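User: Show me a protein chain along with its predicted structure.
Assistant: Here is one chain, sequence first, then structure tokens.
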Amino acid sequence: MNSHFNFLAPFYDRAIPFQRLEQTLKVLDLPHAGILLDAGGGTGRVAEALRPHIGSIVVADVSRGMLAQAHQKDLAAASAESERLPFADGTFDRVMMVDALHHVVHQAETVRELYRVLKPGGRLVIEEPDYRTFAVKMIAVAEKLALMRSHFLTPAQVAALLPSDAKVRVESEEHTAWVIAEK
């Protein structure tokens, strides 16, 4: 699947522009002076929009093609699988994963890792297409046909992957859901 994203990298920002800045600022509780991890952040399209609202940002992704685009935006970037993040426990004040969890092979491991690198008092936001909607079910079919091996979860299924000590809530709008966890 990495080859799909390496191929799409030069066109990704134009093909899928970031459009939910106000909602993203709200769910991440920004502005904040801390450090944000954009896990599965690809080209850094979301991180770039958030840069004025957070102290610093690190984009982590497995696609070198996507990370090359993030580097061109002068974003700190790390080549890393979301299941095994190369950061110490409690490194980040905010952690987000936007439109990427359905592409991850080991989703439960990824969610555990995202929570692990979150500081106590920090906030994790996982934004995903809302699989409960018909439009997203059609996207899931299209991604299967494109051999992307995506696996979409409902917001409740994503929330259930978080540890029991997490304070979790779900927000949704149109075809998007945000699973928000505080540590």
